[in-house]
């Protein structure tokens, strides 16, 4: 008679402990996923036809005396594949200025990348019969505005800000979260143009290294407005890590 009662008591205790463990577990936010857009990769064929060769990291080594080598870039690098939505679809690569070009005029670059190995980024395009440097945002806007589609807005925002697009996010239970919902990169049309969800994450400096969401507003005329970044999550295991 006592054994069934003992079994019931044990089952009730297990259920109670299970509920307690669930209440103590870190809360993982809801994740809204989006498919990356289908678009062609940016065309770099005029640079390859001029004799440039790309390494495994996308950097182009161009023959001395070739037109791309005369662009006075410290480094030429193939762009991110998601820049393929820019219109007109000029062949395009990054023109990175390194410390051999330092100091760099604040009006002579579009974005900055890197940590101690810092780069100031312009873009080199092939238009008509020649190569041309887009040295600053005004040059970039003149080349690619107006912005007339969601795909173009995504590419435009990425190229103009240096922020990142993510479509493969995960929500590990050991991360520290600041929000209750996480959403992957998407583009929505607005009255003025487009609003693009991008992300900022840097390993530069010492932790904590926060993953931040940044909404970028792109007007149809090619204007850019970045909203204030919002802390979303971080990996606590990287809090004591310093990157350079």
Instruction: Report the total helices.
Output: 4
Question: What would the principal axes of the Cα set say about the shape?
Answer: globular
What percentage of the residues does DSSP assign to strands (E)? 25-35%
Q: Percentage of helical residues? A: 10-25%
* H/E element order: HEHEEEEEEEHHEEEEEEEEE
Unreliable residue stretches: 5-17
Rg result: 24 Å
Number of strands: 17
Sketch the major β-sheet.
Answer: 7 strands, antiparallel
Mean of the pLDDT scores?
A: 90
Helix/strand structural class: alpha+beta
Structure characterization notes:
The chain is α+β, with helices and mostly antiparallel strands and 244 residues long. The protein has helices spanning 2-24, 45-49, 137-144, 150-161; strands at residues 30-32, 53-54, 59-61, 75-77, 92-97, 111-113, 119-127, 130-134, 176-177, 181-183, 187-189, 193-200, 205-206, 210-219, 224-226, 230-234, 242-243. Helix content is 20%, strand content 30%. Strands 2, 3, 4, 5, 6, 7 and 8 form a seven-stranded antiparallel sheet that branches. A hairpin with a 3-residue loop joins strand 11 (187-189) and strand 12 (193-200). Residues 5-17 have low confidence and may be disordered.
What is the structure about, briefly put?
The chain has 244 residues and is an alpha+beta fold.
Keywords:
single chain, 244 residues, alpha+beta, 7-stranded antiparallel beta sheet, 6-stranded antiparallel beta sheet, 17 strands, globular
Write the layout of secondary structure elements.
Elements: H1 2-24, E1 30-32, H2 45-49, E2 53-54, E3 59-61, E4 75-77, E5 92-97, E6 111-113, E7 119-127, E8 130-134, H3 137-144, H4 150-161, E9 176-177, E10 181-183, E11 187-189, E12 193-200, E13 205-206, E14 210-219, E15 224-226, E16 230-234, E17 242-243
Parallel strand pairs: 1-10
Antiparallel strand pairs: 2-3, 3-4, 4-5, 5-7, 6-7, 7-8, 9-16, 11-12, 12-14, 13-17, 14-15, 14-16
């Amino acid at each position: 008679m006592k054994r069934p009662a003992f079994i019931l008591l044990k089952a009730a205790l297990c259920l109670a402990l299970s509920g307690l463990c669930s209440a103590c577990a870190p809360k993982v936010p809801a994740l809204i996923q989006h498919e990356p857009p289908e678009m062609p990769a940016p065309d770099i064929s005029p640079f390859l036809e001029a004799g440039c060769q790309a390494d495994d990291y996308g950097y182009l080594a161009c023959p001395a005396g070739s037109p791309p080598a005369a662009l006075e870039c410290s480094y030429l690098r193939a762009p991110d594949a998601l820049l393929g939505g820019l219109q007109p679809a000029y062949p395009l690569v990054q023109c990175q200025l390194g410390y051999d070009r330092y100091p760099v005029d604040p009006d002579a670059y579009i974005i900055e990348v890197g940590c101690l190995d810092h780069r100031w980024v312009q873009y080199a395009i092939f238009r008509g019969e020649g190569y041309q440097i887009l040295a600053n945002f005004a040059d970039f806007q003149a080349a690619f505005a107006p912005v007339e589609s969601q795909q173009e807005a995504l590419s435009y925002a990425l190229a103009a800000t240096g922020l990142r697009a993510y479509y493969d996010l995960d929500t590990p239970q050991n991360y520290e979260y600041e929000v209750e919902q996480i959403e992957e990169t998407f583009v929505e049309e607005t009255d003025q143009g487009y609003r693009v969800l991008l992300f900022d994450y840097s390993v530069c400096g010492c932790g904590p290294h926060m993953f931040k969401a940044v909404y970028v507003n792109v007007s149809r005329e090619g204007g850019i407005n970045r909203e204030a970044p919002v802390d979303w999550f971080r990996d606590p295991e990287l809090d004591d890590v310093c990157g350079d």
